[in-house]
TrEMBL record:
Top enzyme class: transferase
Assigned protein family: Belongs to the sulfotransferase 1 family.
Pfam families, per database record: Sulfotransfer_1 (PF00685)
GO MF assignments: N-acetylglucosamine 6-O-sulfotransferase activity
Protein name in UniProt: Sulfotransferase
Signal peptide (from-to): none
One GO-annotated biological process of the protein: sulfur compound metabolic process
Organism of derivation: Microcaecilia unicolor
Sulfotransferase domain segment(s): 115-383
Transmembrane segments: 80-101
Region ranges (Disordered): 1-61
InterPro entries: Gal/GlcNAc/GalNAc_ST, P-loop_NTPase, Sulfotransferase_dom
Keyword entries, A-Z: Membrane, Transferase, Transmembrane, Transmembrane helix
Gene name tied to this protein: LOC115459271
Statement: the UniProt record of this protein carries the keyword Membrane: yes
């Protein structure tokens, strides 16, 4: 019995049962296969085999071999291509991962080479003196009260609302991005518009001011004459050349506002929190007549006469809250990032305390700076002793 079907080569296979000696033999040169006998079909133990008829001549066999070789090579090429695509994909993923981890590495390198210091305090607490301790160091780029621009621009806003733009301003300064000042400038875009710019030694000396040749610590008059037209771009370039960027501010009344800056991987922030006897602060505040709008913002009494007692109460609350957050219940990320200094201790033994502060931020004391500190603190100590005697009488 013969079964005909079409195979995958497009030919017809004749499946037959064949037996070598009893069936009809294959004719020489013939493609036909003799079928098995009727007797063999009736027995299940027949030795007949299923045989595929090969209708192709020898030339077709060669063609099939060539096609098979081509198919094998095509298969190898596809496999190679798959491996190549996988390798490219792995390389892309690796490069992406490397870039992801390379950014923090670059930031860590930046943190090793640059230190950002924020002097955090309140009004009339000796912050100008502490700021000058760092300003006079040739490795420091110092700005005094840049947050003044925010308060001046928004004089009717409460302090808590002003904290966020102040924080952004300080962060940009730490990163030497001085374009942050542009919204606060109405006319020319020179450093002469920056609040208290003449107090910055860095802005009054090369490279910020190439025409200046400051060699001593008394430079305001010379600076005002030669350096006022320096652009903000030049200010940025100068900032990047210093190992330390120091900012002093009295306008942040909440330490928690600074937490994002402390945790910011692009910054290497350290905080010096300067505190002073409130009685001395009150006495100094009463003698100052130009803090009217500041009093109004702190006391939130824009439409009435400011009460100095209310202002002092707000300042004392802020200092107490900062003390609790930093020393009583400190967050882990504050370790090595925060230090509190009493102004009275600083004045009594200035050189020792200032050396400790310099070690804290990674600065070196110079002989010229040490001499300047001695002369300045000697005068301050005399004033402090005089106030202490008067305060004892009041007590």
């Amino acid at each position: 019995m013969v079964n005909n079907r079409t195979d995958r080569w497009g030919t017809r296979d004749h499946l037959v049962q064949a037996r070598g000696d009893t069936g009809k033999s294959r004719k020489p040169g013939s493609n036909e296969v003799s079928p098995c006998s009727e007797e063999d079909r009736e027995h299940t133990s027949s030795k007949c085999m299923l045989t595929r008829r090969n209708p192709r001549p020898r030339e077709d066999l060669q063609q099939r071999a060539n096609n098979g070789f081509t198919n094998v090579m095509s298969g190898k090429f596809r496999t190679y291509l798959q491996y190549l695509l996988c390798a490219i994909l792995v390389l892309v993923i690796w490069c992406s991962t490397w870039q992801i981890y390379q950014v923090p590495k670059q930031r860590l390198n930046a943190r090793k080479t640059k230190t950002h210091l924020l002097i955090l305090t309140s009004w009339r607490s000796g912050s100008s003196f502490v700021g000058q301790l760092f300003n006079q160091n040739p490795d420091v780029f110092y700005l005094m009260e840049p947050a003044w621009h925010v308060w001046k621009k928004l004089p009717h806003a409460p302090p808590k609302l002003l904290h966020l733009p102040i924080r952004d301003l300080i962060r940009s300064i730490f990163l030497c991005d001085m374009s942050v000042f542009l919204p606060y400038f109405s006319q020319n875009k020179n450093i002469s518009n920056v609040f208290m710019w003449k107090e910055s030694r860095a802005l009054c000396s090369p490279p910020a001011c190439p025409e200046s040749s400051i060699k001593d610590l008394l430079f305001r008059a010379q600076c005002n004459k030669k350096c006022g037209n320096v652009s903000l771009e030049k200010m940025e370039e100068a900032c990047r050349t210093y190992s330390h960027v120091v900012v002093k501010t009295v306008r942040i009344l909440d330490l928690e506002v600074l937490y994002p800056l402390i945790k910011d991987p692009s910054l290497n922030l350290k905080i010096i929190h300067l505190v002073r006897d409130p009685r001395a602060v009150f006495s100094s505040w009463e003698r100052v007549i130009f803090l009217g709008y500041t009093d109004a913002i702190v006391s939130k009494a824009q439409n009435s006469k400011t009460n100095i007692s209310v202002v002092m109460e707000e300042i004392c609350k802020a200092q107490e809250q900062t003390y609790k957050l930093a020393l009583r219940k400190p967050q882990p990320f504050l370790k090595g990032r925060y230090v509190m200094v009493r102004y009275e201790d600083l004045v009594k033994s200035p050189v020792d305390h200032i050396r400790e502060l310099y070690d804290y931020v990674g600065l070196t004391m110079t002989p010229m700076l040490e001499s300047w500190i001695y002369n300045v603190t000697h005068e301050l100590l005399l004033k402090e002793k005089k106030f202490s005697k008067n305060s004892m009488k009041v007590a």
